[in-house]
Design goal:
Blueprint: E1 2-5, E2 16-19, E3 29-38, H1 41-47, E4 64-72, E5 84-87, E6 97-101, E7 105-107, H2 114-134, E8 142-146, H3 151-162, E9 166-171, H4 174-182, E10 187-190, H5 196-203, E11 209-214, H6 220-226, E12 228-236, H7 250-253, E13 258-261, H8 264-270, H9 272-287, E14 295-300, H10 304-312, E15 319-323
Parallel strand pairs: 8-9, 8-11, 9-10, 11-12, 12-13, 14-15
Antiparallel strand pairs: 1-2, 3-4, 3-6, 3-15, 4-5, 5-7
Helix pairs in contact: 2-3, 2-9, 8-9
The structure holds NADP nicotinamide-adenine-dinucleotide phosphate.
The site of NADP nicotinamide-adenine-dinucleotide phosphate (NAP) has 30 residues, from helix 1, helix 2, helix 3, helix 8 and helix 10.
């Protein structure tokens, strides 16, 4: 089978498509015939050896896939060959076949295509967990989303609107902000041309926002925190801009603000029933047409290195999906 392989840590152009033996299912594992595999920022970090998870070399990136079950390992119950599924292997998804633990599999809902299924779990799972479980976002509150046209950001805009918030989307270009408006954002801020703190305060009549969803980090974090209201919550999602901000804690004391860390992958391990409940919620919202992942590009395996490079250069919108068999 064909797989995109990382044989040494480094920039994406070092990745290459190679023929490798098909994986075998061990006890409790399942082999998936991968029809679609979504790209996420952690893939870019993982191939450079910069992510908290470091698979042994050589490995294929690709954290989330949709496809058909090909083979079942010993002891796996309730799944069979041919089932349409979504899976979260963590890595190994940029390949024609991948191995995944059976508990990391869920059914692909009726009427949902493979590309949409692959693009849904990580980004929407993260954003629902962040806004609902960590941020306690309430109907009628105001939510500021940074990096709002990116993978997790676009999901936060859609979920924020679905939860009844007023959503302010912040991103770095006019076409990214157009996408945010199409997703339902009430207001937009171009933070490469406008002062994020000043504009956020203007849009909230000086009060500030209730919740900030921050997957970007860098200088934006402190500006956004300074534009939160009494009891505001800053959700720490990630640091796509590279720099991990150091925040003066008097900003938390003033206005009784909270800084809340979000680590979706570990939350799934700590609270499996909570994860299942959230996935059911997302599938129900998808069926009601309240959410729909933005799949901006569908590309063959050979173009995955270029897509990872463009993701690192802020040139990607929504989700890029790789089709390993095309
Ligand atoms: N905590 C969790 O559980 C969790 C789960 C999933 C992902 N994450 C993290 O969330 C972050 C975003 O992931 P994603 O998959 O949504 O990535 P993405 O699609 O690339 O979106 C990231 C956004 O960050 C902005 N950005 C600002 N400076 C950037 C830079 N120097 N390089 C790249 N992007 C930059 C870009 O928007 P603008 O150009 O508009 O600024 C971009 O759209 C990553 O740090 C990832 O590790 C965390």
């Amino acid at each position: 089978m064909k797989a995109l392989l990382c044989t040494e840590y480094g920039p994406p152009h070092k990745l290459a498509v190679q023929d490798v033996p098909s994986p075998k299912a061990g006890p409790g594992q399942v082999i998936i015939d991968v029809k679609a595999s979504a790209l996420n920022f952690p893939d870019a970090l993982m191939v450079q050896g910069l992510y908290q998870v470091k698979p042994p070399l050589p490995f294929s990136p690709g954290a989330e896939v949709a496809g058909l079950i090909k083979e079942i390992g010993e002891g796996v119950q309730g799944l069979k060959a041919g089932d349409r599924v979504i899976a979260f292997p963590g890595f190994g998804g940029f390949a024609e076949e991948c191995v995944v633990a059976a508990e990391r599999i869920m059914p692909l809902p009726e009427g949902m295509g493979f590309a949409t299924g692959a693009a849904l779990v990580l980004t929407f799972g993260t954003s629902l967990h962040a806004l609902q479980d960590c941020g306690r976002l309430q109907t009628g509150e105001t939510l500021l989303v940074l990096g709002a046209a990116g993978g997790v950001g676009a999901a936060a805009v859609e979920i924020g609107k679905t939860m009844g918030a007023r959503v302010i989307a912040a991103a770095s270009s006019a076409d990214k902000l157009d996408l945010c408006r199409q997703l339902g954002a009430d207001e937009t801020i171009n933070y490469s041309t406008e002062d994020l703190r000043k504009r956020t305060l203007e849009l909230t009549n000086g009060k500030g926002v209730d919740v900030v969803y921050d997957p970007v980090g860098g200088d934006y974090t402190e500006s956004a925190l300074r534009a939160t209201a009494w009891h505001g919550r800053l959700l720490i999602i990630g640091f796509a801009a590279g720099a991990i901000p150091k925040i003066p804690l008097n900003l938390a004391l003033l206005k009784e603000r909270s800084l809340v860390g979000v680590y979706w992958g570990d939350s799934v391990r700590h609270d499996p029933p909570g994860h299942v409940k959230n996935m059911k919620q997302l599938m129900a919202w998808f069926a009601q047409r309240k959410i729909n992942p933005v799949v901006s590009e569908q590309l063959p395996l050979a173009q995955a290195p270029d897509a990872i490079a463009r993701l690192m250069e802020r040139k990607v919108k929504g989700k890029v999906v790789i089709l390993p068999e095309s």
